[in-house]
Amino acid sequence: MQSRxxxxxxxxxxxxxxxxxxxxxxxxxxxxxxxxxxxLVRLSVVFVAxxxxxxxxxxxxxxxxxxxxxxxxxxxxxxxxxxxNGLTGTxxxxxxxxxxxxxxxxxxxxxxxxxxxxxxxLLNPGTDIFTVTVHVKFSTKPSAAVGDYDLIRKxxxxxxxxxxxxxxxxxxxxxxxxxxxxxxxNLSHGPSLANNAWHTIVCRRSGSTVSLTIDxxxxxxxxxxxxxxxxxxxxxxxxxxxxxxxYKGLMDEVTISRG
Length: 259
Ligand SMILES: [Ca+2]
Fold this sequence. Notes:
The chain is mostly beta strands. It has 2 domains: 63 residues, no CATH class; 193 residues, Sandwich (Jelly Rolls). It contains 1 helix and 20 strands.
């Protein structure tokens, strides 16, 4: 019989989440270790919840690699990437130094207001497990004219090679989409997040399953997407440079991971 133990280690400069899998007291698999900077204890708890959920789903413990880590503490014209991959974004009419639970974050109040990150193969899911995490706080649902808020996306529905995105729909619900040559798998779930409180949205594709996790509560949908890879830039806070599907609210701690 296998047993799995999830442990959380916090120090001044990093948080480590470790999952050990043992069988009759012996190590059965290499431990899954996720590390990040200590932003919010709350985020750490969400991290553990997601990791535990992955294991509960019967997934094999395997190392996840952080592709991009955007703390959004920047005060200038760029958004730095703490992952070491150099996936720097450029700001357009973004309000920096906004109050968040810890550190600072970005505000998207203008139109257009967005962060743009140049395309990189690192930001393409391919066929890998691919997870996007966003933290948002907003008080107003998208108007009928706006339609929905585009929180982060790479590509459009018409883009060759597919696309992925995280949105807030007109009813205030979170929404995930992964679209590839084999299909478009998307799902949304309530409640409305337009309550001026911080929320954590995690969109993940693993094999033929897309999952949406809202504040630790997981929802799933099955369906094949296939290989997703395009040459589009990543947009955060809006659909494009014209401010279509313009988000209106605060954002912090956006991460992308693979595996
Ligand atoms: Ca921050």
